[in-house]
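I am still getting used to backbone structure tokens and would like to learn alongside you. Would you supply a protein for us yourself, any chain you care to pick? Start from the sequence, derive the backbone structure tokens from it, and show both lines together. Go ahead whenever you are ready, and we will take it from there.
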Amino acid sequence: MGLFRPNIDRIEGYIPGEQPQETGWIKLNTNENPYPPSPRVVEALVAAARGRLNVYPDPVATQFRKAAAPIFGVDPDWILPANGSDENLTLILRSFVDSHELVAYPYPSYILYETLADIQGSRHQRLLLRPDWSWDLDAARAVTSQAKLVLIPNPNSPSGNRWSDDEILSLVPPQGILVLDEAYGDFADQPHRGELLRRPGAERIIITRSFSKSFSLAGLRLGFAIARPELISGMIKVKDSYNCDTLSLAGGLAAISDLPAMEHNVAAVRQTRARLSAGLTQLGFDVVPSQANFVWCTHPTGRHKEIYEALKSRKILVRFMRFPDVPYAPGGLLNGLRITVGTDPEISTLLHELKTIV
């Protein structure tokens, strides 16, 4: 008899992007923000570090919830902070899905969803996207109508495209929950501020948000969920007592209280995103129009792994990604490069090196 649960023995586990520990790399592989957070964040962290670290943090993050709620036009009891938005995804699986119930998600997309479903021991099914990353809504609804939980990243990763609110609403399972993962939502040309939650049919939608991307705080690990209070109150039963530490809450409160600083950085990323997309197109890549802080691109040669390795040898990291069981891809294997939007000098170096490689 094995020590681990059978479903743990069966899975490989999610593999995060590479994190070099030495300096000198141009790091365009894990969708971090290339710009620093608001100066208020550093001030708040210093003050918190000099404060009462010997005392547990507020278990329900009262001050943070009060600050975040007005941004999305809701009351504080609609907000649930977590140790990164990935923890909220884990809480959602643990709160709503039993082992015999179905989890559905688009594919190709964020592969962590499948790992979380496997850990929970639930059934899961992919919703195959079309080659242009659009929905086959009839096929998708045939699955979501049977699902307890539907997970949708919007904008999608790795493609960066964004689906309409009407498409999202049409995929809410009749007897379940739809999670709208908006980790990259602030980078969209017209970002959401919780408007979807106020539309008819959205009563069982949970939006998850992250501080890792637009707020430049990947190192703090803070995210939050937005949903109706009856959903949030149930998830609170499942979370760890003190799931968000004092420093993360202090930094998150300072960041969300200085939206102009975040919006300034996001505007810079959008501008560089357009330049990166144009530059890749000029080099012969097929680039998906992105609403995130990264772009997905493929090259007619299909030499994506070679391009990735050639860039890595020059100390430039991008993400080489492969998605098996995609029927319209050659050999059933879709692969390509996901490239994070860096600073303008970083993107200039990337495009220069790519010109010599391809």
In short: The chain has two domains: 6-36+260-357, 39-258. The longest strand covers residues 334-340. The CA atoms of residues 4 and 220 lie 30 Å apart. The domain at 6-36+260-357 is CATH 3.90.1150.10 (Aspartate Aminotransferase, domain 1).
